[in-house]
Amino acid sequence: MEYSDLADVLRIQSVCYTELVPESESSFVAKLRASPATCFVASRGGEVVGYLFSIPWHFSTPPRLDMQVCELPESPDCLYLHDLAIAPVARGSGVGQALVAAFLETFERLKVERASLIAVQGSMPYWRQYGFQAVEACDSIRTKLASYGSDVEYMTLLK
Predict the structure, then answer these.
(1) Range of 25's domain?
(2) Percent above pLDDT 90 for the chain
(3) Number of domains in the chain
(4) Is 69 within a domain?
(5) Cα Rg of the chain, angstroms
(6) 68 in Cβ contact with 26 (< 8 Å)
(7) Angle formed at CA 142 by CA 85 and CA 137, multiple of 5 degrees
(8) Cα 75 → chain centroid
(9) What's residue 149's pLDDT?
(10) Of 70, 87, 102, 151, which one has the fewest beta carbons inside 10 Å?
(11) In what residue span(s) does the N-acetyltransferase domain sit (predicted)?
């Protein structure tokens, strides 16, 4: 992903996320600046049709939604998949699978033992097909999950 892709990322986000407040451009810039090697876009015909943001992080403290500053921890213990979205015109074309494959390849290369994500808008079955499992969330994690809307689940994938 490049900074020049962010206008398309924001456009895709606006049509994909209907149950939570969209993140700001500055939040996406912070994540991209912190970890450009773990953020991806998919293009078709020169147009961005999907994106995936991930960052090395601490499993026990998932990031807040729309955080304006993204300082990576010194010793991350997971690769946190923050956001995956596919433009409606590209759904069913394999774009999502390709972006998740890029994420999983990156996960395998990193020296962390788990990946994590917060499944939103009823997406838990989608993530289960990749091996992610729901985890019991403690009170501090449940507080952070609340900012992601209803019907959310904290999930993990172990190597």
Answers:
(1) 3-63+75-158
(2) 82
(3) 1
(4) no
(5) 15
(6) yes
(7) 95
(8) 20
(9) 81
(10) 151
(11) 1-159
